[in-house]
Amino acid sequence: MFEAGALFGFTGTTMASLMFFWSMYRQFVPYQLRDYLEKCFYKMFGLVSTSVHIKFTEYTEDKGLKKSQAYDLIRNYLSSKSTARAQRLKANESKNSKSLVLSLDDHEAVEDVFQGVKVVWSLSVWKSDNQADSSEKRYLTLSFHNRYREMITTTYLDHVLREGKEIGLKNRERKLYTNNSSQDYSAWREGRWSNVPFDHPATFETLAMDLEKKEGIKKDLIKFTKGKDYYRKVGKPWKRGYLLFGPPGTGKSTMISAMANFLEYDVYDLELTTVKDNSELKKLMLDTKGKSIVVIEDIDCSLDLTGQRKKKKEEDEDEEDEEKKAEKLLKRERSERESKVTLSGLLNAIDGLWSACSGEKIIVFTTNYLDKLDPALIRRGRMDNHIEMSYCRFEAFKVLAKNYLEIESHDLYGEIERLVEETDMSPADVAENLMPKSDEDDADICLRRLVMSLEEEKEKARKLAEEEKKKKEERDARRKKKKAEEEHKKKKETEENGDVFRDNGNLI
Ligand SMILES: Nc1ncnc2c1ncn2[C@@H]1O[C@H](COP(=O)(O)OP(=O)(O)OP(=O)(O)O)[C@@H](O)[C@H]1O
Ligand SMILES: [Mg+2]
């Protein structure tokens, strides 16, 4: 009734009166009689009507409990159309409570035009007369002229569902997921991942790094998001791996947040040490959605993935002090006890057959020590893009100064440029120096503090280099001495063996 009215262009007043009679009719006419009258009406109307109606219910018809996905997608699609054209709207808070979301009100209709064809969507509510069941059931009805049946039921509906999906993804509240430990039974029963709203403020604008490199990464990400057809054409799953490496405090984690904000993706922070074994890792990965970044931070500490390097490490072990050795052993033992995820399990998780289950996924590893990782883990194709996050140089400093002090130049810039190029200070430390600590701290005070810190750091680095040099010389001397002793011992042994042989010879 409403859809037909809207389709034939009734005015708002006419619609309001019709709706008044409609609600009176629903209230006072008994259900059985209404059912009979409606059947007759639709039969008569169908004989003369040229319009077609398609009904989309809020809940699926089978058991009536599961929400219909198509209904939600259509509501998404209609939200902008309704805001622009409908007379009565319903206002709801968005999921993150930051804004209001307007949608079509109950018993309201809105027009849409597609390829020059007019269609009408209307939202109806059906309320059960059964006293025990007070639930309301909503459904959307699409009405259009019979002449366009073919086009509307195929092209138009595809268009609505596709657009609705995109709008839904854009409006959704982004999430930061962490994996639940399977040892924690109650958490694991709730789901493999727990989530909180993702609200990190980092962006590429606030990220301090070489500008050219930054632009390159942004372009790479954009190309990836638009690459659905390309990836299909070349026969690759639609995913991309990034390896971020560099010293602590150079912005690896910040970069991940900036990437997620730039692409509007969710983040899955995968803590490998709590994953029991390869099969659990597989399940966790299968449980991640598309349009997301899966992150494994500090991959070198998460697991002992460097089996084949153990030998080399053990060779060097005599050069390390006892304390470090004990610490390493403890770490290795702990990770072996806690997790049985193996290198091949992880490789499978990244690009095994089933990893292609949901597309548009970015996988990021971070590490402080690139050379500790197994080459198989970081080869191109698995980790496609290797990004070095380096100590703060002048370009990065300028970004930080702009962020923290809102300045683009200063008399001290020349001195700072020289110092940052000569000194290895992380952006995290530079940022800490630049941050005003009280209301009296202006740009001048903060920059002077930075200069002092840089000079101290430079001096510390000089002393450290000297100490290192001394230690190396001592180590070399020790090694030389050890070698000489061994050679001497060998020589002595050979001589003694010779003597024995001679003695034995004499005996014979
Ligand atoms: N490149 C950068 N640009 C802007 N801010 C940065 C940058 N690097 C570090 N910071 C600041 O320093 C803090 C620490 O940085 P972040 O956690 O990203 O370092 P990280 O490289 O992940 O360190 P770690 O190796 O210890 O995990 C951040 O919260 C941020 O404020
Ligand atoms: Mg980090």
From TrEMBL:
Transmembrane segments annotated in the record for this chain: 6-25
Reaction catalysed by this enzyme: ATP + H2O = ADP + phosphate + H(+)
GO biological process: response to stress
Domain AAA+ ATPase: 238-393
Pfam family, one: AAA_lid_At3g28540
Cofactor: Mg(2+)
Record InterPro entries: AAA+_ATPase (IPR003593), AAA_N_dom (IPR025753), At3g28540-like_C (IPR058017), ATPase_AAA_core (IPR003959), Mitochondrial_chaperone_BCS1 (IPR050747), P-loop_NTPase (IPR027417)
Keywords linked to the UniProt accession: ATP-binding, Hydrolase, Magnesium, Membrane, Nucleotide-binding, Transmembrane, Transmembrane helix
Annotated region (Disordered), positions in chain: 309-331, 457-508
Ranges annotated as biased composition (Basic and acidic residues): 457-502
Family statement drawn from the similarity comment of this UniProt entry: Belongs to the AAA ATPase family. BCS1 subfamily.
Protein name: AAA+ ATPase domain-containing protein
